[in-house]
Amino acid sequence: MATAAEVAQLSERPEAPRQTTEFRTSRPQIVGPECPESPFPILLAGPVQKGFGRGGKELGCPTANLPDESITPISSVAKTGVYYGYAQVLPPKDGKTELCEADVRVLPMVMSLGWNPFYKNEILTAEIHIMHEFRSDFYGYNMNALVLGYIRPELDYTSRDALIEDIEVDKRVALNSLNRPEYQKFRADPHFDLSCTIPPQS
Ligand SMILES: Cc1cc2nc3c(=O)[nH]c(=O)nc-3n(C[C@H](O)[C@H](O)[C@H](O)COP(=O)(O)O)c2cc1C
């Protein structure tokens, strides 16, 4: 298995597999062992950046991207693909924010690591979709994430609807997979700030 970082060194990206009917109709609803195994958990942290603005929101999956240096802990040990885990957005140090208490909790997430074959990105990205309705955007805020398992390879699609459908399945698979005792424990991992609160806004 080549890691994402190794693939990034190649002069040409290997062609991503196409989504097939067989893949679509035979997806498992839960993935990974009962307890996270090496290389998981993988810890990520960094300031949230804007994506390519191609409409993650319209795809039903607005994503928070991490800068290049923040994705090395995963790209150096893992292949490209879709992963699940937990993430937490931290309020800015000056305390001024439109986010509320519920927005800064440790929340379930799905992450796409790679070159988004459907969009043929030029650069490697780690795009995290947190499964929660946020009160506002949080670009520039720090985010901590813990990656706990692998769901599937990144695929190429013949239509945007087929990609949206797979992302919806990814979200369900992630929630099912995280809903096991050995995964739930990571919600309280010291990588997160469990005492995080939002001060009253003036
Ligand atoms: C859970 C998840 C799975 C994804 N799977 C794929 C995939 O298999 N192939 C692909 O090309 N892009 C995939 N994407 C990337 C989306 O295409 C991308 O996040 C979307 O285009 C938003 O891009 P933007 O940040 O430019 O708005 C996935 C994204 C998420 C969150």
UniProtKB/TrEMBL annotation:
Residues 18-28 have a biased composition (Polar residues). One of its GO terms (biological process) is FMN biosynthetic process. Residues 42-179 form the Riboflavin kinase domain. Residues 1-31 are annotated as: Disordered. It comes from the Eukaryota. SMART domains: Flavokinase. SUPFAM superfamilies: Riboflavin kinase-like (SSF82114). Its EC number is 2.7.1.26. GO terms for molecular function: ATP binding; riboflavin kinase activity. The keyword Metal-binding does not apply. It is an enzyme of class 2 (transferase). Keywords: ATP-binding, Flavoprotein, FMN, Kinase, Nucleotide-binding, Transferase. GO terms for cellular component: mitochondrion. Pathway: Cofactor biosynthesis; FMN biosynthesis; FMN from riboflavin (ATP route): step 1/1. The keyword ATP-binding applies. Belongs to the flavokinase family. PANTHER family: RIBOFLAVIN KINASE (PTHR22749:SF6), RIBOFLAVIN KINASE/FMN ADENYLYLTRANSFERASE (PTHR22749). Catalyzes the phosphorylation of riboflavin (vitamin B2) to form flavin mononucleotide (FMN) coenzyme. This is Riboflavin kinase.
